[in-house]
Amino acid sequence: TQLLEQSPQFLSIQEGENLTVYCNSSSVFSSLQWYRQEPGEGPVLLVTVVTGGEVKKLKRLTFQFGDARKDSSLHITAAQPGDTGLYLCAGYSGAGSYQLTFGKGTKLSVIP
Amino acid sequence: DTGVSQDPRHKITKRGQNVTFRCDPISEHNRLYWYRQTLGQGPEFLTYFQNEAQLEKSRLLSDRFSAERPKGSFSTLEIQRTEQGDSAMYLCASSVSGPDTQYFGPGTRLTVL
Q1: pLDDT tens column, A30-77
Q2: What is the largest CA-CA distance in chain A?
Q3: Residue range A99-109, pLDDT digits in tens
Q4: Which 8-state DSSP code applies to residue A82?
């Protein structure tokens, strides 16, 4: 069973601060996806990373896929209250895979 | 541009009753997935369809759970003889093909009393 460990589990910061959340595994993933989920709603896709070492930016969010494709990070610059939510990473373990394996998520609260 | 839709959004039922949830995927998406999410956890894979064929169902939680996608479009997930432990968010997702980015619906929140 492929496992994804996310850290920290909870994060509470002031508006304007920067933060990084991590997604780690001992297994190689062919691709990794980051989602944000708000209470009572389904996960909303933020980004998919496929190539080892890949960096993608989405406004104030920067996503990185580790060179060995075993880990990923999400960095938020100048966090805003609208960034509050549960951030989930999920990955496919190999070609032909159909099952996304999810981490438990990082619950972010940005205080105005 | 419509995304994945699920119905109902909330369901409250008594223990022992049967419930059925519906998922309408994004049109042109061949793959449809069901997940379950409990409090404090990430979504957990249950089953998936390629068009109308159910290609993986070994992860369904028990024989009380079943899913169908009769015409390769919408899908239903049925839970028979519900138990309190079935209380969770049931999520549906779809993708063009696999492995590919999965897009999730808003979920159905089930509460079993």
Answers
A1: 889 999 999 989 999 999 999 999 999 999 999 999 999 999 999 999
A2: 44
A3: 889 999 999 99
A4: G
pLDDT band at B28 (very low <50, low <70, confident <90, very high): confident
- A19 Cβ contact list (under 8 Å, min separation 6): A11, A13, A75, A76, A79, A108
> Scanning every residue of chain B, which has its alpha carbon at the shortest distance from the alpha carbon of A90?
B42
Q: Is A39 helix (H, G, I), strand (E, B) or coil?
A: coil
Which strands sit side by side in the sheet containing A5-7, from one edge to the other? A5-7, A19-24, A71-76, A61-65, A55-58
B105 → closest Cβ in A35, A42, A92:
A42
Residues 17..76 of A with a Cβ closer than 8 Å to B: which? 30-31, 33, 35, 40-45, 48
CB B26 within 8 Å of CB B94: yes
